[in-house]
Write a structure and sequence with these properties.
By secondary structure, the protein is of the alpha/beta class. It has one domain (about 30-60, about 85-225): 3-Layer(aba) Sandwich (Rossmann fold). About 35% of the residues lie in helices and about 30% in strands. It has seven helices and ten strands. The chain has helices spanning about 45-50, 75-85, 100-110, 115-130, 145-155, 175-190, 200-205, and strands spanning about 1-15, 15-30, 35, 60-65, 65-70, 85-90, 160-165, 195, 210-215, 215-225. It starts with a strand and ends in a 5-residue tail after the last strand.
Length: about 230
Amino acid sequence: MLKLRNLERRFESGKGFEYVLRQINLEIADGEFLTIMGPSGAGKTTLLNILGMFDGDFEGEYHFLDRPVHQCKPQERAKLGRENIGFVFQQYHLLDDLTVQENLAIPLSYRKYKASETAALVADTLDRFQIVGKKNLFPNQLSGGQQQLVGVARAIIARPKLILADEPTGNLHSDQGREIMRLFQRLNAEGTTIIQVTHSEENAGYGHRIVRLRDGWIQSDEVCAPAA
């Protein structure tokens, strides 16, 4: 599904440049469930933002669905991401002036669904996440955990080819967190590729593979047996 070749990311600093990612070489096959781990400052979220097409200011090569992302213009890259990737943000990124159901409909607008199809998918997702009673509320009327559930629901509603999740259960209580991870596991079994960033070894256990970063470098890349 995607391939990185000698990918690097640097930011300007008082001393010139500071590298956050160094010589990242990584291949992720269609249908994998990959976890990225590492201490704070290791480059995990930066890598996820590049994979999600939010950050195009990198060096090296990034191929996604046989498209050379490193050669794409910003508008082309953004369109490729919107049409194929669902993103679960650590800080929710819900639109404050839209209701829950309106937030859920946003990814569908990029994929040219008919109004009736959009309404049906939103209704089904509200029911699936047991948030029907919240559909007309705005994000500031929800708890942090409720906002995170809406964020996860928004990421999967359009059935993207790839889901990227940055600490997807960080604001949920343990039962909600396990349910979200089991949902990811089911989606993965149905063919969705998933890449998550997490500090949780328990959450990492739901995937097939763990890539560990340290100081911007890949420290290890190991296969693991998914949790039952």
